[in-house]
Amino acid sequence: MRMCLSIPGKIIAVNGKFVSVDYGDQGIRENVNNSLLQGKVGDFVLVQGGFAIKRLTESEAQEVIDALKIIGSEFGNAEGMF
Q: Is the domain covering 7-74 a CATH 2.30.30.140 domain?
């Protein structure tokens, strides 16, 4: 069984209906659709399926990242995940 995860990131640029989201330590950046939130530079957002779907505080985003690291380490495949 597979499931989709919403990954938190920080908006670093806005270009119309799209934003560039930085996912942190790994240097991964992605352009995602911003039409659901109208997020701004500096906002932390959850991203799923190419859309920013929810705004988070910085501490909420960090809690999600920490939880995903724990989950990844439990399944033995956390290296390079976050």
A: yes
